[in-house]
Amino acid sequence: MWIEWFIRCSTSMNKWPLKMLCNECKRHRYIFSFSPLLFINNHKIDQISLKKFDWKKTEDERWKYSKKKSRIPSTLFASSVIGALTAAATVFSWENDGVSDRELQEACSDDYLLNMTNSQVNDVLTSLGWEKLLRKDHLMLFRKYDDELQVYSYKIFGTFNDISALVFFQVQLDLDYRMNWDDHALRLSVVDANESTQSDIVHWIQKFPFPFNHRDYLYVRRYCFDTSTNIPPKIVIKCHSINHPNVHDDKKCVRVNKYESSMIIQSKTKLDEKGIKFLLTYHEDAKASMPTSTYSYLAQSGIPNFVEKLHIAAKQLPKSKQFLSIDSLPQCRFFDDISN
Known about the structure:
- The chain is of the alpha+beta class.
- Helices cover 34% and strands 29% of the residues.
- A hairpin with a 6-residue loop joins strand 11 (259-267) and strand 12.
- The longest helix has 31 residues, at 59-89.
- The termini are far apart.
């Protein structure tokens, strides 16, 4: 099976660059052994049977292997101690690490774009250095490289006439329901919550394709109902990555420490009536070594697919699970009180 897999990869390097595979393996300290054509994790090499693969080592090689094997328990123990001390030193504060009022205000800075036509949005963003990746009847996708963060930022515009802003928002808020419709979500849970600011901390493990490790997100999320203008009403969602003492790094996953997103969901009439526009702005460093062309392909295909799944999930949300109401949303009345 491994030989066939390696031959397929070798004969299709233009479609799936081998360099990307090797970089990912190197980053996780994998040894690429061509004799058995196996990926061997050097932390778990002591669990591999020599008889099974019949490597026919010399006595000197066997002695080196046993010496290396004897060092592994102490290395793992030291790593565990360091990890425990790091977790103990992690401190989270809602006041310092949560989503601030100003962040919510800045999340609404692009809401004027939702009142423009697609052509006007395209002209404005391209003049600001944004690159258009995709344009459909109900969806537009732009990106721009951030020199300071050294990652791409994305803007996604969408329009749906068959769902309400309230339902569209709840589908994203309900983590249990998302586990049903998002097949890339391996785990979603609320770690902590703060009722006074209507914020919570979400732990999200996202499935990545082989040979990449799954990605581990830990972020704080806050939302509110923007009443700074009467028409049209908007829901604002802001998220950014954090550290929390209750969540330790998973060795099987790669923690994404650089993640931030802002979403504005604007209703055409009322929040509980059908017809919405939304704008999602986000960036992340998934720590995956892959060419820019591969990233572009994933963005142009993956993002629209996810938005469509989100749309279908909102249309199929049972009325028995529609627990949100306009009165239950916290209002962002502080927007007008923040000085520049």
